[in-house]
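Quick note —
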Amino acid sequence: MGSPLFEAAKKNASLAYKLDQSGQTQQAVKYYVSAAEQLQKLINFTDDPNMKNLYYHKAMEYILRVKEIRGIIEPSEPPTPSSAPSPKSDEISDAISSVIVREKPNVKWEDVAGMEGAKRALREAVILPMSRPDLFKGARKPWKGILMYGPPGCGKTYLCKAVASEVDSTFFSVSAANLISKWLGESEKLVNELYERAVEEAPSIIFFDEIDALAGTRGGSSEGEAMRRVKTQLLQAVEGFDTGDELLVTIGATNTPWDIDAAMRRRFERRVYVTLPAREAREVIFSIHTKGIPMGIDVDFKALAEITGGYTAADIALVCRESLMQPIRELDAEGALTDMSVQVRAPKAVDFHNAMMHIRPSVAPDELARYDEWRDKFGG
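Predicted structure written out below.
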């Protein structure tokens, strides 16, 4: 009972109950879910059947309350311990997945460094139609499908979250790879349910990360019947799902646009190329990933941006993390890390240069050429 997981679950459940009792039911939801997830982990870590039953019962109690708040079920008495089914972690996991609704991402538009072309395209394709739906009627109808493509680590997911934060919409985030690997056989039904729910909670954005896993070229020898049905269902949903007058846009992100099935590619009417950050953007990225840490007087982000051409945003984040750790390593090597009277030095320019000796650009020039070739052929 005294484990950190149990204490965390207890704390989250207590906070959820207080919020619930004070009428702040929507705020209570995430704490109920967190408590249930922590109890789910505890079931896996204990061999005591009585404790398993206790954890299971409490977790399902919290999930039932979330379902009541969400309006999924009518309010009722929670099950008694004697009526609770045998404790299974995956049952709790399924219950959790049925009640979690993605909250609005906490990523501001101005937090996205550079990518002006991609930001402009997404503003026109998503933000403007959802902000002024009255202007996007008839022949000026908004795009239904948008494909964001480019090298990994360049901020496609981050940019999509920034889009969602700019509009008053429901944001559904789905890992296409996980959907296939975990739910093959049920994926077709889940895709349909996802779009039905998105229409109910419109205006909505459905974001598929790794869309190539779900929308790859059809008809391959290794493709089973279930997988073909999932792809057909997604094709129909992106293009022709009956939304009435409700706004619904599907955004897919991929690092391998050439793997997208031709029919699916046509459904993504707007294609947005998210490529390596320009020099000005790299300067901002250095600033973002060193925020709150005083820098040495010789650290010049503009100069660092000049010599990091070819680096992705993720590469620069790693350079910053490595550079900020170097002063800590020095203290540790001297045995002074536990001496609270010793101050850590500020990172210097040499720390960043040393970091770049070990952290090289993750995208090769020939890989970039392939993205450019695809853009020239299919637009974006």
